[in-house]
Design a protein that fits this description.
TIM Barrel, 19% strand, six-stranded mixed sheet, eight-stranded parallel β-barrel, 756 residues, 29 strands, FAD/NAD(P)-binding domain
Length: 756
C-alpha cells in the first residue's frame, strides 16, 4: 500500500513506525514543511498512563524515549505567597525536538521516507497527492491545508479561546509540574512550568484578554514580553532567563471535526482535534491516533473499512479528553474568579478542574493532601476538630444560612410527584418526604407547589392555597422535624404558559386534551405551537398573582417550613419573565434584564418582607436557556446580584427547560459551572444540581468552592437512604441514623471499612 503523509509531527512519524513494523512492504512518504530539527515549542509532557500505551505499541521507541525522560510525581500550586504540593500523579517530560528526533530516526530505520522543507499547501497538489496514493495522512496541524481542501466534508469547528499565552523555555529545573499565579497592577498571570531534560523547563505564561491589553503586551515585541515576564516571575525563576523559540502571544484554538475521514484521506493529531495544553494531552492524542489507525488495518480491512473503524474507535475517547481539556481551559480562562477563595481551596479547585482528579482520587494519590483539604474545609464550616481526629468528608459538614443550620450539605432536590388531589398532598407525600428525611439528607425540598389552582403545572401538582393544603403540608413538616435531623424547604411556583399539562408519565409538557384552565404569561406565546396561547399579563394579573404568592408563603410559614424557595426556573411564570425568548414585552417589564426582572423581584421582595428574618430564602433559576438567543451569563450575574441585594440567601442553580427547542449539553455535573459562576463572582451561596451522582462528585464540588450545597433528584428516587449509604461507605460514623435502622449501618459500609 502506498501512503503519503502531509506533516511529519509525532502523529505521522509514529504511524509510520507502527505501520512498518506490521507491514514492512508498505510504501510510506512524509512531507514536512519545517527543516530537520526545527520545531515550535519546548518540552512536551506525558502521564504514566500514556507511556504504558507507547510501551504496548513499540517497545524499542518506548525505551529510547524513556531514556531521555525527566520524571516527577508532584504538582505544585503557587498562589499568594503559599505553595501547595500534591504528590502521586506521575508525569514525564521530554524536549519536543528530541522526541521528533527519536521518532524520525526510528521511522527512517524502518524504511519511512521523510522529506523536509516541503510545504504542501496548494489545493491542486494536495488533490494530486491524494489521487496518487492509497492513503493520505492529513497530519499538518490545527490549520491543516489538507482539511481545508475538503472542508465541506470534514466540517471543522475552530473555537478560538479567550486567553492569550506565550510558550517559552527556561534553563531551570522545576521538580514538579508547577503552576504559578502572579498578580500585578495589570491583572493575573499564570505560568505552567515543567522540566523536559536535566537542565531545562517549559514555561508557558497565560492571561486573560483584559490583562493582556492593560499590560501593553499586545503591542510589545517578544523581547519586551520576555523582559516583562522575567520581572513578574523573578522570584520563581531564580535568575534564570526566559527563552523564545518562534514564540509569540497567541490564543488557543480548540479543533473539532464532524468527520475524520473522506475517501482515502484521514485526519490525525491536531488536524483532527486539539486539547488544551493545561492537561498535556495534545501529543498523547496524536500518538494514540496513530496506534488506533494502524490497528484499524488489521484483519485485512480495506482503506474505507479501516478508516471507519478508526473513527469509531477514537471519537468517544477523544471527545472525553477534549471535554476534560475544555473544563481545564475554562478554569484558567476564569482563574480570576477563584482568587476570592482561600489559597488551599484555590489549589484544590485547580487540581480538580478537569474532573480527572476528584476528592476521592486525590485521597488515593496523596492521602495527606486530601486530609488537609478536608480539615481546612471543616474548619471553615465551623467544625471543631479534636487532635488526631479525622475531618468529616466535606458533604458531612454543617452549613448555616441566617438562623438555619443544616447538619450536612446533601439536599433532596424538589421533584414533582404529580400525585396530589386538587392540590392536596396525601399519605404518599408523607411517606415520600419522610423516607428521604430519615434517609439522612440535610435539607429536603418540597416539590414545586402551586400558589393557585391556575398556577399548577398538571392536575396532579401540589398546592398551597387553602386551609386543607396547609394542614396536609404541616403533617409532613411535623413528621420531618420529629423523626429526623433534616430540615425541610417549600418551593412555591406558578406554571405560567406551561400549565394545564399532562402528568409527566402521560406526556411531559404536553397540553391536557380536556379540563384545561386559562394560562398567563408575560407574552402571548404558547409553549408548543399546538399548546394553549396564554394571556399576556396586565397589571391586574400581576397584582393577583403577587397576592397568591403572598398567601401561599403565609401558609408555608404556618406549616412550619424552615426555608422558602421561589421557583424562577424552567420556563414557568417567573422564569418566562426573565428569558428574552419568552418575554417580548415592550413596556417596563420587558427589554433589558433589569426590566425583565422587575416582576420576579416584586414577588421575591413581597415574600421576603413577610418571611421571618431568621429564616432563609432561596430562588431557583435557569442560568442558561441552552439557546443562542436566550439568557446570558451577564444577565444571570446581574439578576443574582439583584436577588442578593433583595435579601436572597441562596441561588438554586438549574438550567434550561424554558423553550422546547433548547439543545442542552448533558454530562457529569453539567449545571455546576453556573453555580460556580454565581458563587464566586456574585458572592452568594449556591446549590448545585444536575447529574450529580456520587458522594465523590459532591465532595469535589464542595471542597473546590464551586457550590455550598448539592441537590440530588434521581439518586434519591432510587435510594431514599442515599445519604446514610454515603456516610457508611466513607466511614463517617457521626451521621445520625434513625435508631430503628441502626442495625443496617454496617451492612452499607464499604468492604473493608468498619463503621462504628
Amino acid at each position: 500500500m502506498k501512503i503519503t503523509g502531509i506533516g511529519a509531527g509525532p502523529a505521522a512519524l509514529y504511524f509510520g513506525i507502527l505501520a512498518k513494523l506490521r507491514h514492512p512492504g508498505w510504501d510510506i512518504t512524509l512531507y514536512e514543511r519545517n527543516a530537520l530539527g526545527d520545531t515550535f515549542g519546548w518540552g512536551v509532557v506525558f502521564s504514566d498512563e500514556t507511556l504504558s500505551h507507547l510501551l504496548e505499541a513499540d517497545e524499542s521507541t518506548h525505551a529510547e524515549i524513556t531514556r531521555t525522560f525527566a520524571h516527577w510525581q508532584s504538582i505544585d500550586v503557587h498562589f499568594r505567597g503559599q505553595r501547595f504540593r500534591s504528590s502521586g500523579h506521575g508525569f514525564s517530560g521530554i524536549a519536543r525536538r528530541r522526541l521528533l528526533e527519536i521518532l524520525e530516526a526510528r521511522a527512517v530505520e524502518l524504511g519511512v521516507r521523510v522529506e523536509h522543507g516541503v510545504d504542501v499547501t496548494d489545493p491542486q497538489r494536495i488533490r494530486a497527492l491524494a489521487g496518487d496514493c492509497d492513503l493520505l495522512l492529513a497530519a499538518d496541524g490545527l490549520r491543516s491545508a489538507v482539511r481545508g481542501v475538503w472542508r465541506e466534508h470534514f466540517e471543522p469547528s475552530l473555537d478560538v479561546r479567550k486567553c492569550r499565552y506565550i510558550w517559552l523555555g527556561a534553563p531551570k529545573v522545576f521538580d514538579a509540574f508547577t503552576f504559578v499565579f502572579a498578580e500585578n497592577a495589570h491583572g493575573l498571570f499564570h505560568a505552567h512550568a515543567y522540566r523536559f531534560d536535566e537542565r531545562n523547563s517549559t514555561f508557558i505564561v497565560e492571561c486573560d484578554e483584559e490583562t493582556f491589553q492593560r499590560s501593553g503586551l499586545a503591542d510589545a515585541t517578544v523581547e519586551a514580553s520576555i523582559a516583562y515576564l522575567e520581572d513578574l516571575f523573578a522570584s520563581w525563576l531564580g535568575g534564570a532567563p526566559l527563552q523564545a523559540n518562534r514564540s509569540q502571544w497567541i490564543q488557543f484554538v480548540t479543533v473539532r471535526n464532524a468527520r475524520w475521514h473522506h475517501e482515502n484521506v484521514v485526519l490525525l493529531g491536531d488536524a483532527a482535534h486539539t486539547a488544551h495544553f493545561s492537561i498535556g494531552s495534545g501529543t498523547k492524542l496524536a500518538l494514540e491516533d496513530s496506534i488506533a489507525l494502524v490497528d484499524a488495518f488489521d484483519r485485512g480491512r480495506t482503506v474505507p473499512e479501516a478508516l471507519a473503524v478508526y473513527d469509531r474507535a477514537r471519537r468517544n475517547l477523544v471527545e472525553r479528553t477534549q471535554k476534560a481539556a475544555q473544563d481545564s481551559l475554562t478554569w484558567f480562562e476564569h482563574a480570576k474568579r477563584y482568587t476570592v477563595l482561600p489559597p488551599w481551596q484555590f489549589a484544590f479547585s485547580l487540581l480538580t478542574r478537569s474532573k480527572r482528579i476528584t476528592f476521592e482520587n486525590l485521597g488515593l494519590r496523596d492521602p495527606a493532601f486530601a486530609e488537609g483539604v478536608a480539615r481546612a474545609f471543616a474548619t471553615s464550616a465551623g467544625v471543631e476538630l479534636q487532635s488526631g481526629a479525622l475531618a468529616p468528608p466535606p458533604m458531612f459538614t454543617p452549613f448555616t444560612l441566617r438562623g438555619l443550620t443544616l447538619p450536612n450539605r446533601v439536599v433532596v432536590s424538589p421533584m414533582c410527584m404529580y400525585s396530589s388531589e386538587d392540590g392536596l398532598v396525601t399519605d404518599f407525600h408523607l411517606v415520600h418526604y419522610g423516607a428521604r428525611a430519615q434517609g439522612g439528607a440535610g435539607l429536603v425540598m418540597a416539590e414545586s407547589t402551586g400558589v393557585s389552582p391556575q398556577g399548577r403545572i398538571t392536575p396532579g401538582c401540589a398546592g398551597l392555597w387553602n386551609d386543607a393544603h396547609e394542614a396536609a403540608w404541616k403533617r409532613v413538616v411535623d413528621f420531618v422535624h420529629r423523626e429526623s435531623a433534616s430540615r425541610i424547604g417549600m418551593q412555591l411556583g406558578h406554571a405560567g404558559r406551561k400549565g394545564a399539562a399532562k402528568r409527566m408519565w402521560e406526556g411531559l409538557d404536553e397540553p391536557l386534551a380536556e379540563g384545561a384552565w386559562p394560562l398567563l404569561a408575560p407574552s402571548a406565546l404558547p409553549y408548543h405551537p399546538y399548546s394553549q396561547v396564554p394571556k399576556e399579563m396586565d397589571r391586574a394579573d400581576m397584582d393577583r398573582v403577587l397576592a397568591e404568592y403572598v398567601g401561599a408563603a403565609r401558609r408555608a410559614l404556618a406549616a412550619g417550613f424552615d426555608l422558602l424557595e421561589v421557583h424562577m426556573a424552567h420556563g414557568y411564570l417567573l422564569s418566562s419573565f426573565l428569558s428574552p425568548l419568552t418575554n417580548r414585552r415592550t413596556d417596563g417589564f420587558g427589554g433589558s434584564i433589569e426590566a425583565r426582572a422587575r416582576f420576579p423581584l416584586e414577588v421575591f421582595r413581597a415574600l421576603r418582607a413577610l418571611w421571618p428574618e431568621e429564616k432563609p430564602m432561596s430562588v431557583r433559576v435557569s442560568a442558561t436557556d441552552w439557546h443562542p438567543d436566550g439568557i446570558t451569563d451577564d444577565d444571570v450575574r446581574a439578576f443574582a446580584g439583584m436577588l442578593k441585594d433583595a435579601g436572597c440567601d441562596l441561588i438554586d442553580v438549574s438550567t434550561g427547560q424554558t423553550v422546547p427547542d433548547a439543545k442542552p449539553v448533558f454530562g457529569r455535573m453539567f449545571q455546576t459551572p453556573w453555580a460556580d459562576l454565581l458563587r464566586n463572582e456574585v458572592g452568594i451561596a449556591t446549590m448545585a444540581v444536575g447529574n450529580i451522582q456520587s458522594a465523590d462528585q459532591m465532595n469535589s464540588i464542595l471542597a473546590s468552592g464551586r457550590a455550598d450545597l448539592c441537590a440530588l433528584g434521581r439518586m434519591h428516587l432510587g435510594d431514599p437512604s442515599w445519604t446514610l449509604r454515603a456516610a457508611a461507605q466513607q466511614g463517617w460514623s457521626a451521621q445520625r441514623w434513625p435508631v430503628q435502622y441502626e442495625a443496617g449501618r454496617a451492612a452499607l459500609a464499604a468492604p473493608g471499612r468498619a463503621v462504628s
